[in-house]
Specification:
- It is built from ten helices and 16 strands.
- With about 325 residues, it is α/β, with parallel strands linked by helices.
- The strands form three sheets. Strands 3, 5, 6, 7, 8, 15 and 16 form a seven-stranded mixed β-sheet that branches.
- Strand 12, helix 6 and strand 13 form a beta-alpha-beta unit.
- The longest helix is centred in the C-terminal third of the chain and has 20 residues.
């Protein structure tokens, strides 16, 4: 079967299409014929070696984290799915990839595709949906009436996170460029800062939580808009010692990650703010709950551009420019 793989870390020229053996599902896995793959920024970071210490791949490795497709075979212990079921899933952090004609997916990571969504729409959801769900519902425990700041509201995470926060009854502040103000307002954002015109930390006040989605000094600036006893959950780092311990890393890496996060944690504690770093995990049960919100129309996919499979490298390059409104998706079939 055809797959997009990276052969070595660090060099873009090591990403190439190649023929690989079709995977065989283990007893607890399903084999999916992939129809579409949603791209995420981390799909560009992995082959550069950015997460080499955290993610294990046997090289050459297939790229891609999200997928939607049709089950063609099930393992002997699988009970929730059968051949011909339409499913969607994130297989991030499992050492396997989705940018291929077929992919194996643990039964525990998959959910039935919402019938209202086509495969392209469904493929755009898993990682951004699960990341947002785990950050806002699990880590922040966001409650009705609280105020959440989500920078970069027109991006893949932002477009989903705004809608989920509004569904939970929160008030949402966000930043975006002039051309995307109406988009984020249409998703439910209450306070919209055009970052080309204003600095968000000079306008927003009394927030209960921040979802860290932007690199640079935005995370430190966001501390200024928070109340005491509030929460920052960062998706872009720096990773902290608690994250390293949770992943069973050795003492040296726990120490290193503690150093990396020392400054932001110190600044947060001065303001009585809790900081943590979140690495999304696959979860088919949560994805099924997200699917119910999509089915009910409470949340809608936002897709910027769709590329055919043979242009998957171009799709990754387009995503890396950081200008996409919503998600970039590769259509396999």
């Amino acid at each position: 079967m055809k797959a997009l793989v990276f052969k070595r870390y660090g060099k873009p020229d090591q990403i190439t299409f190649t023929d690989v053996s079709q995977p065989v599902p283990k007893p607890n896995e399903i084999l999916v014929q992939v129809h579409a793959v949603g791209l995420n920024p981390i799909d560009n970071m992995i082959p550069k070696g950015t997460f080499k210490a955290m993610l294990r791949f046997q090289l050459p490795a297939t790229l891609g984290s999200d997928l939607a497709g049709v089950v063609v075979e099930v393992g002997s212990r699988v009970t929730r799915f059968k051949p011909d079921d339409a499913v969607f899933a994130s297989i991030f952090d499992l050492g396997i990839g989705s940018l291929a004609e077929f992919a194996v997916v643990p039964e525990s990571a998959a959910a039935l595709k919402p019938t209202k969504l086509d495969f392209v729409q469904a493929a755009s959801i898993p990682m951004v949906g699960l990341t947002t769900w785990q950050a806002i519902k699990e880590r922040m425990r966001l409650r009705r009436g609280q105020k959440l700041f989500i920078p970069a509201g027109s991006g893949g995470i932002g477009t989903f996170a705004i809608q989920l926060a509004k569904h939970l009854g929160a008030k949402v502040g966000t930043t975006t460029s002039t051309g995307n103000v109406e988009l984020v307002r249409s998703l439910g954002a209450d306070e919209v800062i055009d970052y080309k015109q204003q600095e968000f930390e000079e306008v927003l006040r009394d927030y209960d939580a921040v979802l860290g989605t932007v690199k640079g000094d935005a995370l430190e600036k966001s501390l200024r808009i928070l109340k005491p006893n509030s929460t920052v959950v960062s998706l872009i780092g720096p990773p902290d010692a608690a994250f390293a311990r949770a992943r069973g890393m050795n003492f040296f890496l726990v120490f290193v990650f503690g150093l990396l996060s020392r400054k932001i944690i110190r600044l947060a504690r001065k303001r009585v703010i809790e900081y943590s770093f979140l690495f999304v995990r696959p979860d088919g049960g949560q994805l099924a709950e997200i699917g119910e919100l999509l089915e009910a129309g409470r949340i809608r996919p936002v897709i910027d551009k769709v590329f055919p499979f043979d242009q998957a490298k171009e799709a990754l390059a387009y995503l890396e420019k950081g200008r996409a409104k919503g998600k970039v998706v590769v259509q396999m079939r």
